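Can anyone check this?
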Amino acid sequence: MTATLRTTKYMHYTLPDSIGEETIVNEYFKKVEAQYWQLKHYLNYRLKNERVIIPWVQIYEDWLQSLKNIRGTNHKGMPGCVSSLCIELLNVTNSFEETGGMSQPEDHSARGWDDAINNTIISNTDSDILMNTKKLMKETLPKFLKAFSLTTLNPLRDITILEKPHLNQFVHPIMDSALWIFAKVYYIYGEIPLKGMKTKVRADGVGFLNDVINYPIVCGEGARPGASQQKSVDDDVKNAKSMVELYNNIVISEADAHRQLFTDLKTYGITAFKTEVSLTMMDFRSTHRLFEVDNFGLPRDWADMPNFVWLYEAVIKWALCANATRGALIDHRKKRRLGRYSEAINAKKLSRLRN
């Protein structure tokens, strides 16, 4: 459920300064155009523009109260579509609170959050995506809570942490759980060779389509928080090349099995630099094309708890894309096999991919 401004006429609308004389609203709504009014954008704006970090609860309450005040104002010249947008934004927020599955605990300690996770019930009446989201949170959130509870020994705050513990404790487990829960892709990590291909390249993580003759479709690279910028560039280049290898391997293997070309194939990538994670996707349209599906920063302390919303949003979106590719490939393989003439045409098309 999303909130949308219903007309393009007021996309650039901002609240006039005079509204503050009769209605208390946050400065965000006076500085930012209505087309951008969203909770995530609002949070980023507050974090960027305010010198003092305000508790999440207060920022969230300011958001709700501002929307209610804008909706209820009698200010002359207030567009009806803007009032409607505020109502929709409140409805989205209420819907999230009612169905999000885990309420924010009164006790914000590790024990309080742990109890909230344990008390989250996975019901048969939940939608598939809500049920899977609860599973993902139950599997992955406790790792962060344990780290946060260490305070000064929190490994996410130590910039000198080694590469493997950083990736293996926090980044890879999230990918593993999300890919399996949402896409039934089997993800393993360590120095993993890209099996079945001529390349000797290894990846920090590889995801396999375990029900489509184990094609690898996901690869990942990462660096410790203290790594140089050049290491980030090298990982991006290496991972993009690995995604090309994964793509070509599947296409050529399917052609060798006399199956029709699957033109909607996509491969998926993960790159982690310091505490930033980028989730990518690659397809082929005359040339290989790389897209960033989403990105997120690893929450590092209790103050970052609100950022789990963006983390799970990014990971779930990316995993659902992988699931769509997996389902489409399974359906495509049910089509009849190719005749010799069609095979000859495909062989010509794939000649440069084999090189």
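Reply from J.R.: I decoded it. Strands lie at 185-193, 202-209, 215-222, 267-273, 276-284, 288-297.
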